[in-house]
Input
Amino acid sequence: EAGVVQSPRYKIIEKKQPVAFWCNPISGHNTLYWYLQNLGQGPELLIRYENEEAVDDSQLPKDRFSAERLKGVDSTLKIQPAELGDSAVYLCASSVGGSQNIQYFGAGTRLSVL
Amino acid sequence: SQKIEQNSEALNIQEGKTATLTCNYTNYSPAYLQWYRQDPGRGPVFLLLIRENEKEKRKERLKVTFDTTLKQSLFHITASQPADSATYLCALIKAAGNKLTFGGGTRVLVKP
Output
């Protein structure tokens, strides 16, 4: 069974440029998460989807970040325009939901903004 | 404010010894506590889950304890091996909702 797939693995852009990340969750997982992880820190939730509905986007900086999960399967996270402080690893995770909420993570996209 | 703290200093340990990691939390009433392993350049991988009414959980060489009075979880790796070298993250889930909140992680280095 394939795990959570993210692309690209690495992205280098100049500040003020747009960037997009893609995630394909594990088949059958209705819940999808986007996290941001800075070096030496734990993942921080940006947005959570239940199927195609964003049920928690309170930590998403909506002035420059946007996300979509059309058809409730794969998802795209976009930053426009990117700032230097956006350099980090962006992780996608999925789960079957439920109270225990065991999550399965992709390898992440490492973004460097120059 | 809510806080989850893990020792930010790396834990260096000799192969064969037991590694013990701590996860402390404040202003939080978790229903579940999870531990994940993260290798460089990879996403976290789920290891163990313990419920608020459980004191201890084991899986092979791993043991997790959960003390809701002390607001602390301990994570033990017995008979440690160099392959156990990684960063270990604790994560908490409140009783309501299923948002996972992570600690900063502790890096473990097992020397042969």
Summary: The radius of gyration of chain B is 13 Å.
